């Protein structure tokens, strides 16, 4: 038992980010699964809404602290457990890392979130082909820009040779894109960086299929 609890779901990319960050820092945690589809979605249950009224995973409970929003959680972990930090101390690098992470987590990911896709299908009557085009559109817009930027910033990883918050956001986004069959051949930098990251145990242990609630 750990007094650190991560409420998440194996296929949630935002929870995947937090798993990577916890693993990189060597912090143990108990996982509690919030099934995003079963029974209309457990994220909508009264119990879960007490933890996060926004009805989204992840939520991290760490002692007295209960936090949602994966980027805020990683920030909190960096402040609280600074032995391994995911934002560089150099000011210019630090804000570059934050901006690139937000390019993925703020500008790309929410457009393809489950509730957005469900709204397209269930309320707007969008068909499967249109939904796939919607999905791919936002991946391509985001990855076109990221691919360009990586030409300037990358080393072994997204920004130089240290693992940063950008990497924590990138790997789950690439996982999602592959899951939805988006063609990524135009993004050699993204694919190379992701391949290097996935060799690290902290990333390998966080993959969705390795989680206890994976089906
Ligand atoms: N900005 C939030 C996003 C959280 C989020 O979108 N979580 C998704 C899974 S990746 C979710 O819970 N979706 C449930 C739904 O759409 O109903 C974060 O970074 O934590």
Automatic annotation (TrEMBL):
GO biological process: glutathione metabolic process; L-phenylalanine catabolic process
Signal peptide range in chain numbering: none
InterPro entries: Glutathione-S-Trfase_C-like, Glutathione-S-Trfase_C_sf, Glutathione_S-Trfase, Glutathione_S-Trfase_N, GST_C, GST_Zeta, GST_Zeta_C, GST_Zeta_N
GO molecular function: glutathione transferase activity; maleylacetoacetate isomerase activity
Keywords: Isomerase
Superkingdom of origin organism: Bacteria
One GO CC annotation: cytoplasm
GST C-terminal domain: residues covered: 90-215
Domain GST N-terminal residues, every copy: 2-85
The keyword Transmembrane helix is assigned to this record: no
Pfam families listed in its UniProt record: GST_C_3, GST_N_3
UniProt record similarity statement: Belongs to the GST superfamily. Zeta family.
Name the UniProt record assigns to this protein: Maleylacetoacetate isomerase
Species this chain originates from: Vibrio brasiliensis LMG 20546
